[in-house]
């Protein structure tokens, strides 16, 4: 169970903290400007976004598991994995690029929504969180579908979300202070490694669906040294989606994604002070 616990905890923590920081920025602005009467509208929007994300996850599960044949399930799973990796990669770089402007952008949109009316405030909060929620749900679904059991991925994801909420609340209250730029850099790099495994496994799914060739053309076979049912083999599969029998196409996909994405993400210019993620204002 713990093999798929840690990567999904990382997904829940990283993506959950992004969403929680968005909410904390909105709440802090309303408190600071003495508009506490608007807070319930923000929570209505946030609640609706959470419901949408959960419903989207249920729909994905029903749609994929409800397919008639194994090849159809592998085809759907493969395409969803590749799409999810594309979305999460875009979000990682988007956060790095817009981090220093995020607070100003959100508060400007919230101010405009307040001028338009109550419904606009709730809708603005909904849109701000829904984007994170839908992308996180798709990425979690893609990461979890390779697991032999649903308990490990779900438990890890929920624990990650819970830690993110507690951490965001502590930051909001000023109880703790962390360098969010450093936090998002390291978790982003780890998430890229996890995404590389999902990306490669997506191609393997498409090979099993007979959409792509080379299912029996192996880049290497270390199943004798790393048995798939061993604790370390299971752990490597859960964290990195590593397979002792890896096809040539899988290996190419893993390298083709990991090397350029991780290089660009960790490029020195990404670590300048201007790129640091702003911390939410403490409660007044």
Could you explain the architecture of this structure?
The chain crosses the membrane at residues 6-29, 41-63, 75-93, 113-131, 151-171, 183-203, 248-267. GO terms for molecular function: ferrous iron transmembrane transporter activity. This is FTR1 family protein. This protein has 284 residues and is mainly alpha-helical. It has one domain (5-275). The protein is built from eight helices and two strands. It has a two-stranded antiparallel sheet with strand order 1-2. The longest helix has 47 residues, at 70-116. The protein is elongated and about 65 Å long. The chain starts with a helix and ends in a 19-residue tail after the last helix.
Structure at a glance:
This is FTR1 family protein. The chain is mainly α.
Furnish the topology, listing elements before pairings.
Blueprint: H1 5-32, H2 39-65, H3 70-116, H4 118-144, H5 151-173, H6 180-208, E1 218-221, H7 231-240, E2 245-247, H8 248-265
Antiparallel strand pairs: 1-2
Strand order of the largest sheet: 1-2
- How far from one another are the termini? 43 Å
Strand fraction equals under 5%
Which structural class fits the helix and strand makeup? Answer: mainly alpha
- Summed over residues and divided by their number, the pLDDT gives a mean of 84
Whole-angstrom Rg = 20 Å
How does the major sheet shape up? 2 strands, antiparallel
Total count of helical runs of at least 4 residues: 8
Number of separate domains: 1
Number of strands: 2
Percent of residues in helices comes to over 70%
Following the backbone from N to C, one meets helices and strands in this order, namely HHHHHHEHEH
Anisotropy-based shape: elongated
Question: Would you identify the regions where 5 or more consecutive residues have pLDDT less than 50?
Answer: 270-277
């Amino acid at each position: 169970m713990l093999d798929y616990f840690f990567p999904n905890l990382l997904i829940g923590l990283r993506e959950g903290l992004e969403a929680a920081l968005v909410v904390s920025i909105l709440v802090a602005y309303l408190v600071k400007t003495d508009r506490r009467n608007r807070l319930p509208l923000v929570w209505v929007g946030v609640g609706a976004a959470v419901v949408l994300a959960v419903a989207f996850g249920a729909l994905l599960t029903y749609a994929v598991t409800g397919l008639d044949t194994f090849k159809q399930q592998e085809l759907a799973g493969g395409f969803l994995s590749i799409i999810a990796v594309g979305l999460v990669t875009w979000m990682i770089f988007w956060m790095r690029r817009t981090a220093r402007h995020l607070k100003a952008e959100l508060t400007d949109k919230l101010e405009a929504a307040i001028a338009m009316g109550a419904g606009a405030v709730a809708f603005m909060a909904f849109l701000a969180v829904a984007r994170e929620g839908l992308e996180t749900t798709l990425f979690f679904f893609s990461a979890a579908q390779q697991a032999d059991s649903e308990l490990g991925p779900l438990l890890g994801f929920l624990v990650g979300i819970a830690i993110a909420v507690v951490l965001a609340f502590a930051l909001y209250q000023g109880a703790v202070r962390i360098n969010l730029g450093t936090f998002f850099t390291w978790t982003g790099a780890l998430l890229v490694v996890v995404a590389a495994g999902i990306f490669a496994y997506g191609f393997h799914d498409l090979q099993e669906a007979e959409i792509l060739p080379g299912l029996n053309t192996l880049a290497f076979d270390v199943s004798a040294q790393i048995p798939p049912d061993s604790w370390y083999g299971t752990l490597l599969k859960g964290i990195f989606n590593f397979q002792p029998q890896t096809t040539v196409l899988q290996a190419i996909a893993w390298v083709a994604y990991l090397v350029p994405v991780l290089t660009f993400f960790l490029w020195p210019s990404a670590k300048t002070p201007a790129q640091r993620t702003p911390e939410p204002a403490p409660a007044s």
